[in-house]
Amino acid sequence: MDTHLANKVAIITGASRGIGRAIAEALAGERMRLVLVARSGHLLAEVAASVKCECLVHVADLRKTEAASEVIAAAIQRFKGLDLLVNNAGATQRGDFLELPDADWQDGFALKFFGAMRLCRAAWPHLVANRGSIINIVGIGGRTASADFAIGGAVNSALLNLTKALAHRGLKDGVRVNAINPGMIVTGRLERRINAAAAAQNLNYETAAAKMLEKLGIARFGTPAEIAHAVTFLASPAASYCQGTIMDVDGGETRTL
């Protein structure tokens, strides 16, 4: 299927590894031109070298107030326009609610929510000009709360609400805004969780992973490429009637409406 994405310009945050890297690889395969954003310059350079498309590497800490406008300015200077913004950056601290300090809450919102919000705001006029789109990579914790994911759940819920609000604005301005909620995706972060569970329960990695799957009630973990495929679909004209869509890509873990 021709996705009609060739030569269009996409910004991907958190592009240095995991889901972000997979998104970069998928969109490069559609012959898009990419702006790769993360805090790790050497990892971004590796991604840029591997995807074999026209790329701009932009090292930024999106927790800083001025970072978002700088990303957009760099993208416009290089490519003269913008068609897609993928907000993927942001990880939050798990743990006991009573032991999580204010700093962890502030850090979680600073990157994943405020970083994405500022990028949306700075990118909006350019997306209006090209009738472009925004895809927020959020997470199923925004829909289903858990005691050890209070920060992440709150941040994700806020970002899902922002997605709906901007989708409403986008009806007037011609910008599509949608979100993807990944479930348990095999990244370094998930592998660290499994290793920690294995150590705590005196199990090997495979047994700990199997026990986690059983507890979650799913058949397997997902892959970053599966999230990237969803991004490609939502970015393409095939999803032209998707506006404010929240897509759970979680192997059936979310069983609420």
Describe it.
Helix 3 (67-79) packs parallel to helix 4 (102-130), helix 4 packs parallel to helix 5 (150-173) and helix 6 crosses helix 7 (205-216). The protein has eight helices and seven strands, in the order E-H-E-H-E-H-E-H-E-H-E-H-H-H-E. The protein has 257 residues and is of the alpha/beta class. 49% of the residues lie in helices and 14% in strands. It is globular and about 55 Å long. The chain has two domains: 9-185 and 222-248, NAD(P)-binding Rossmann-like Domain (Rossmann fold), CATH 3.40.50.720; 186-221, no CATH class.
Keywords:
257 residues; alpha/beta; Rossmann fold; 2 domains; 7-stranded parallel beta sheet; 8 helices; 49% helix; 14% strand; globular
Poorly predicted tracts of residues: none
Number of domains: 2
Helix content: 40-55%
DSSP strand tally: 7
Helix-strand makeup class: alpha/beta
CATH topology of the largest domain: Rossmann fold
Strand content: 5-15%
Overall CATH class of the largest domain? Alpha Beta
Gyration radius, in Å: 18 Å
Oligomer: single chain
- What composes the largest sheet? 7 strands, parallel
Distance between the termini: 31 Å
- CATH superfamily caption of the largest domain: NAD(P)-binding Rossmann-like Domain
CATH architecture of the largest domain: 3-Layer(aba) Sandwich
Shape: globular
